[in-house]
Amino acid sequence: MIKIILRFHNKRYSTLYKCLSLSFGVLFFLVILPLFFIWIGSFVDKYFSINGSGIIKFLISILSIITGLFFLFWATYTQLMIGKGTPAPNAPTQKLIVNGPYKLMRNPIEFGAIIYYFGLGTITFSYSVGFVCFLLGLAIGSSYHKFVEEKELERRFGEDYIKYRQNVPFLIPRIKMK
Fold first, then answer.
1. Cα–Cα distance, 63 to 172 (Å, whole number)
2. 141-148 long-range contacts, CB within 8 A, separation 24+
3. Residues 100 and 84: beta-carbon distance below 8 Å
4. Cβ atoms 21, 79 nearer than 8 A
5. Which one of 12, 75, 82, 118 is most buried, counting C-beta atoms within 10 A?
6. Neighbour tally for 73: CB within 10 Å
7. Closest Cα to residue 138, out of 158, 118, 161?
C-alpha cells in the first residue's frame, strides 16, 4: 500500500484530477461510509439504545455535524492550498503541512470525520448509533493512519515528519493559550 501511495508523490496533478479525487472522497467518506456505520449501529441500537430529549439530541447532533464538517473542510482546504495536494492517496500533498489544523493535531480530517459520524448517527437514530459510528470511524481511521499513512509520510518527508510527529498530538487537539 505504501509503495502505491509513494508512486503518486512526485507527480503533478491537473485541477480536474484533484476535483475527481476529492469528489470520490466526499461521496465515500461523507455519505457511503457513514451510512454503513449507521446500518451497523442500528443493530446495536436494537439491544442497547440511548435516546434523549428531542431538542437536546437535535442540537448536539447539529453541533457535531457542523464542527466535524468545519474540521474536514479546513484540513482539506489547507492540503489543497499549502500542500498542493488532496487527502486522497492518489493525489497526495507535495509538501509537509504543519500549519492550520495540522498545527493542533496530525489528523484533523479523522478528528472531523469521527465528530461528523457521531452527529449523523445520533440525528438519524440515537446516541448509541452515534457512539457506534464514532467508534468505528476512530478504529478504522486510527488504524489506517498509524499503520499506513505515518509510514508513508516518514518515507516522503523524512526527519521533518519525525520531528513533527514528536511535537504534535495524533488526534486530540493541543490548544495553547498565550
1. 18
2. 141/107, 141/110, 141/113, 141/114, 142/107, 142/110, 142/170, 142/171, 145/106, 145/107, 145/110, 145/170, 146/170, 148/1, 148/2, 148/5
3. no
4. no
5. 118
6. 14
7. 118
- Under 8 Å CB-to-CB from 125, ≥6 apart: which residues? 38, 41, 42, 45
Direct distance between the N- and C-terminal alpha carbons of the chain, in angstroms, rounded to an integer: 41
CA 107 to chain CA centroid, Å, is 7
Give dist(CA 31, CA 60) in Å, integer.
Answer: 20
Say if residues 57 and 127 touch (Cβ distance below 8 Å).
yes
Q: Which residue's entry shows cell 454503513?
A: 36
* CB 138 within 8 Å of CB 55: no
Q: Is the Cβ–Cβ distance between 92 and 125 less than 8 Å?
A: no
How many residues comprise the chain?
A: 178
Q: Give the global pTM.
A: 0.87
